[in-house]
Design brief:
Blueprint (H helix, E strand, L loop, with lengths): L1 E4 L16 H11 L7 E2 L8 E7 L5 H9 L4 E9 L7 E10 L5 E4 L7 E13 L2 E8 L6 H8 L20 E9 L6 E5 L4 H9 L10 H14 L1 H4 L12 E6 L8 E6 L2 E7 L8 H12 L5 E7 L21 E2 L6 E5 L2 E5 L14 H10 L4 E5 L5 H8 L4 E6 L2 H13 L8 E5 L2 H11 L3 E6 L4 E4 L2 E4 H13 L2 E11 L6 H14 L4 E7 L16 E7 L2
Parallel strand pairs: 3-9, 13-14, 18-19, 18-21, 19-20, 21-24
Antiparallel strand pairs: 1-3, 2-3, 4-8, 4-9, 5-6, 5-7, 7-8, 9-10, 11-12, 12-13, 14-15, 16-17, 22-23, 24-26, 25-26
Helix pairs in contact: 5-7, 8-9, 12-13
């Protein structure tokens, strides 16, 4: 069986609980057809490399096919679009030693270096446009990241490859275009080919589309198609069990999905399109309308719009009709308030009630962590907003929860969330309207301690008691939160302040531990959910860490 693997799909599962990978998809497809689902896997492609993958359907031919791959008798050809390929080098053979580094990259090293493996790639230049070129690569060996590392080493990194310094592109510009081998039963030569993706010719001609991606229906549709493909496991999450069913997630994450200053979120049968700013790509109103038209064609019931100013934190009224219309821009209206599922947890959202919906989707994985840790534990949710973390702690078996927020309206919605999940009356759940710093000081004086504290403040906030700026005040806040943790307690610390890097965030947390005399046994960086990919060569906006104190 030969498959033209889409970009953004893993060859094999990385997440056992939600195996959104090529093998898992194929086995489900075969089962639906009533066929036996045996698949022999003989090769892998990187998640962001598209193209040919060969699998066997019968065990008795595995040894023959495996011997051809291992004996380098299978010819593997790739297409790569690169920048900086020198003129006059129409044909060349790259022969290097490659070794994996601790940074996850493959490095060109001396062939005598420890761990070095020979890597041989034959290169033919097919076309050139200015500084950009399309290359055909015959990989005579099969090392991890072989083509990516070797081309970067000679100064011609593959487009869209942030790991090896590639130029901006809508995707990793690497495609497995051909395989040639001997058929294991007939003995005849078997030639397989997969056409080059449409983005390759477009990038070769004009480079990265940037904002112009919104000027052409076909280009925009292709970008949306890739985004949908990457979220296949979320869109089909009910396949993995009731406690994994998720109906709210991010479909498009700005530059991480090659769509600048646009985010699109799924809430059940509706989409919410978030346009960042009114300048740049959105200075042209026709672009926004084209985006809404293409989103409306995806098959959802309706599409809502949020326009996020550059300084959204300074807005006094986040329900202004010009930035958050109460009615959908396309399709039918959603109920004023309705329930979505997140990892099987029911939560209430509102799509036509200002800029916020009542749920921050980038915290999905962290809420699952709290749920998994909460059994028998006391839990404090600071800056609790509508109490989604609290609902997860309660459903996870927390013995006691306290939710603290300066907004009475937010806590009213939090109480409704707890009631909707069926946990409000069945446990000890306190909702406290207060400034978080004031509440923490009061709890510390009383000697009250918690097993888990979730700390997810806004980057900027103002209450009657004072003003909070994450860039300046997060350390003091983290220290106050650590002071109310019991022995062996855990602090889930988060910030989406773009001016705080992940490394600086770790330093802030270690210094906060030192200030209050608490010894951390671990400060673990936590990744963002897969539906929030970072921009090429950049970092995601959310930084999260789990601090575990000594017991």
């Amino acid at each position: 069986m030969a498959i033209d693997k889409p970009v953004g799909v893993s060859s094999q599962a990385a997440d056992e609980q939600r195996p959104d990978d090529l093998v898992g998809r194929l086995k489900r497809y075969l089962a639906l057809r009533g066929e036996q689902d045996y698949l022999g896997v003989h090769q892998r492609l990187d998640r962001d490399t598209s193209g040919l993958v060969l699998m066997t359907r019968r065990r008795e031919v595995n040894a023959d096919v495996a011997a051809q791959f291992e004996g380098r008798r299978v010819v593997k050809s790739y297409l790569a679009c690169v920048s900086g390929w020198p003129r006059g080098r129409d044909r060349v053979t790259l022969q290097d030693g490659l070794a994996r580094g601790k940074d996850g990259r493959s490095h060109v090293v001396s062939s005598r270096s420890p761990g070095a493996k020979a890597a041989v790639t034959q290169v033919r230049c097919l076309a050139r446009r200015g500084d950009r070129a399309m290359l055909e690569l015959d990989l005579r060996t099969g090392r991890t990241h072989q083509a990516r590392a070797q081309l970067a080493h000679v100064g011609s990194p593959i487009g869209g490859d942030p790991l090896y310094g590639g130029a901006r592109a809508p995707r990793l510009m690497l495609h497995a275009c051909a395989l040639a081998l001997t058929h294991p039963t007939s003995g005849r030569r078997l030639d397989l080919a997969a056409a080059a993706p449409a983005e390759f010719a477009a990038w070769l001609d004009g480079g990265d589309a940037g904002d112009a991606i919104y000027d052409d229906d076909a280009t925009l549709d292709l970008a949306l198609e890739h985004a949908v493909e990457r979220r296949w496991g979320l869109g089909r999450s009910d396949l993995y069990g009731a406690d994994r069913t998720t109906t709210a997630f991010r479909l498009v994450n700005e530059d991480g999905d090659a769509m600048p200053r646009l985010a699109v979120d799924v809430y059940g049968a509706w989409l919410v399109a978030q346009f960042y700013g009114t300048d740049g790509p959105w200075a042209d109103a026709a672009r926004k309308q084209r985006v809404l038209d293409r989103l409306g064609a995806l098959g959802f019931d309706g599409v809502y719009v949020k326009v996020r100013p550059k300084q959204a934190n300074l807005l006094v009224d986040t329900r202004r009709v010009d930035i958050a219309p109460p009615h959908p821009a396309r399709g039918a209206a959603a109920p004023e308030e309705f329930s979505i599922l997140e990892e099987g947890v029911p939560l209430l959202v509102r799509l036509g009630d200002g800029l916020s919906t009542g749920l921050f989707l980038d915290q999905r994985s962290n809420r699952r962590r709290v749920r998994d840790l909460a059994a028998g534990k006391s839990f404090a949710n600071l800056f609790s907003y509508t109490c989604a973390f609290t609902v997860c702690a309660a459903l996870g078996g927390s013995s006691r929860t306290v939710s603290v927020d300066a907004s009475l309206a937010a806590l009213d919605r939090g109480r409704a969330n707890l009631a909707h999940a069926g946990v409000l009356q069945s446990g000890d759940h306190a909702l406290v309207v207060d400034d978080v710093f004031t509440w923490l000081a009061r709890v510390a004086r009383r000697g009250e301690r918690f097993d888990i504290v979730a700390l997810d403040p806004p980057s900027y906030s103002t209450t009657r008691k004072g003003r909070f700026v994450a860039d300046e005040d997060y350390g003091a806040l983290a220290a106050a939160a650590l002071a109310v943790l019991g022995p062996g307690g855990r602090l889930l610390a988060c910030t989406n302040h773009r001016g705080i890097s992940a490394s600086r965030f770790r330093r802030i947390l270690f210094e906060a531990c030192r200030q209050v005399g608490r010894e951390p046994t671990q400060v673990k960086d936590l990744p963002e959910p897969a539906d929030f990919p970072a921009p090429p060569g950049g970092a995601g906006h959310m930084k999260s860490a789990l601090v575990t104190l000594a017991g």
